[in-house]
């Protein structure tokens, strides 16, 4: 039964944190969207290093085609990415990338290092580190629970409490000590009820 390479092992998914990310919020914060309609922003260079993933740079042109649409051309990848804006009900616009592969609206695009192109998280099948770490002890809890006479959920809750440490509820100093005397800081002392 089953030799080397058999089974359904796919390996761990790549995480968003392991990729270079191009974010609308970063472009907005660094004034890349300050372009008038039908005008083209001069070629700019973006460079960044994400979480020790190495250094990445790209040259880009940004052109606003209408009040709610822009085109971003990334020279390094030879990729044309559209940006669209949605009006917010309290005024202003929120900018989004349109994923070049699935045309879905997204706030961030991630670099696919194999193809040297930017796509959304769903197209690259990326996950978050927290999702990978969230159920790592479920099998252990399943084994321990019957021995303790508890359910898997009860054991998980006990474990999470132990991990956080036991924190006592904070009790006011005057309630903990019978010999406590107020220092009279309150300007309404002694007529007030608080110390």
The structural domain count equals 2
Low-confidence runs (pLDDT<50, min 5 residues)?
A: none
The main sheet comes to: 6 strands, antiparallel
Write the element-wise H/E pattern from the N-terminal end onward.
EHEEEEEEEEHHHH
DSSP helix count?
A: 5
Report the count of strand segments: 9
- Distance N terminus to C terminus? 75 Å
- Average pLDDT for all residues: 77
- What fraction, in percent, of the residue positions are helical? 10-25%
| Spatial arrangement of strands, main beta sheet | 2-3-4-5-6-7
Q: Strand-residue fraction?
A: 25-35%
Which class do the helix and strand fractions yield?
alpha+beta
- Overall, the morphology is extended
Radius of gyration over alpha carbons? 28 Å
Describe this structure in words.
- It is a single chain.
- The protein is of the alpha+beta class and 195 residues long.
- It has two domains: 16-130, no CATH class; 135-164, no CATH class.
- Helices cover 20% and strands 29% of the residues.
- It is built from five helices and nine strands.
- It has helices at 24-29, 129-133, 138-148, 152-164, 173-176; strands at residues 21-23, 40-49, 55-66, 69-74, 79-87, 93-98, 105-106, 108-112, 117-119.
- The strands form two sheets. It has a six-stranded antiparallel sheet with strand order 2-3-4-5-6-7. A three-stranded antiparallel sheet has the order 1-8-9.
- A hairpin with a 5-residue loop joins strand 5 and strand 6.
- Helix 3 crosses helix 4 (152-164).
- The longest helix is centred in the last third of the chain and has 13 residues, at 152-164.
- The chain is extended, with a radius of gyration of 28 Å.
- The protein starts with 20 loop residues before the first strand and ends in a 19-residue tail after the last helix.
